[in-house]
């Protein structure tokens, strides 16, 4: 839910130069993302100190959502910044440097930014108009198979479809009723579930490859489990969702057949993640040449998915690994990473204010404007109040993106949390 981040999403703006062509994002190691441009002016209401071009709306939405989840009332200017990013059509782009300019056909709006903003604004309350417009736009760009791609007209992928399902749930709509013709989002996800008798059986693929074959991907699987459960980023086991049927299974077998329920697909995906995490307690990077490197962001996503599926026992080991090993990563990656960890703690009933000895809530709050109020009656210092030395360290850090889009990438290879590199046209 890039999704990227290792938890910020890298929008597919570079793909626009390809016209109707396709490109796929490639995973980056946690410590290999671009740093902020020295001349980049960071808006005062925005969380983080790195270049927001590719993840502004994503990281802001996750930060606000995480704060709301732990009882923190975000700064008004932070909420206003997010609201101001919305286009008249209801859609959001990854980032608009001049929010006063009217969106047009060249504005690179996308489903992921729009859906994550819906989840945040719906949680905060008081934004029914903005949420309603965004949901109507999402309905209008649904694909014939019932799913969504990263950009309007792009091929459906598990990550984008799942984050949009979360948006419908947040808005109070039933995802299963959002159909394009006869196909619902749950059917689109089922079509991306790897059959039990194939390599990686039970997992979700990001998209089919050029031959129509499905390859297991842990990141897409974490997203697919949440989507199939009918849940958004803020999730716990046993909490509603049409896709929840059948997820109480404890049997360690993949459920086969051509008529999988959403719950069956979620069960299979959770089982795949459990096995993938069993040895080391973390997922590894899918970047060529970095396969032995831990992927903190994907591991946090997997914990959320397992917690949502009611598989708390399977989440114990990766959660403990994150508590011990995610500090340096989160400090470098910034607000979206802290938000991911808070949501992982929430999904498993863990205290985010004592996460391996760290207070994730204060650490997140310190990356943006001072919050209005907190359930623990304290607010963290604003990023604007940090010492010049701390600011310098922040400016040298990276925003932890998992994915970068390039014109030379091969369609269908890369996958990432909630991002598809395919695009056919941009809409305002």
What profile does the largest beta sheet have? 2 strands, antiparallel
- Based on CA atoms alone, the radius of gyration comes out at 19 Å
Report the uncertain regions: 1-34, 244-249, 376-428
Broad CATH class: Mainly Alpha
* CATH architecture label: Alpha/alpha barrel
Task: Give the strand order of the largest sheet, numbering strands 1, 2, ... along the chain.
Answer: 1-4
The domain count comes to 1
Percent of residues in helices comes to 25-40%
Determine the mean pLDDT. 81
Shape: globular
Strand percentage, roughly?
under 5%
Region (Disordered): 237-260, 366-392
Keywords: Membrane, Signal, Transmembrane, Transmembrane helix
Organism: Streptomyces spongiae
Biased composition (Gly residues): 237-246
Descriptive account of the structure:
This protein has 428 residues and is mostly helical. It has a single domain (13-247, 258-404), classed as Glycosyltransferase (Alpha/alpha barrel). Helix content is 37%, strand content 2%. The chain has helices at residues 56-69, 76-84, 111-124, 128-140, 158-170, 185-190, 218-228, 262-278, 296-308, 312-325, 327-333, 335-347, 360-365, 388-396; strands at 26-27, 92-93, 109-110, 403-404. It has a two-stranded antiparallel sheet. Strands 2-3 form a two-stranded antiparallel ribbon. Helix 1 (56-69) packs parallel to helix 3 (111-124) and helix 7 runs parallel beside helix 9 (296-308). It is globular, with a radius of gyration of 19 Å. The two termini are 23 Å apart. Residues 1-34, 244-249 and 376-428 have low confidence and may be disordered.
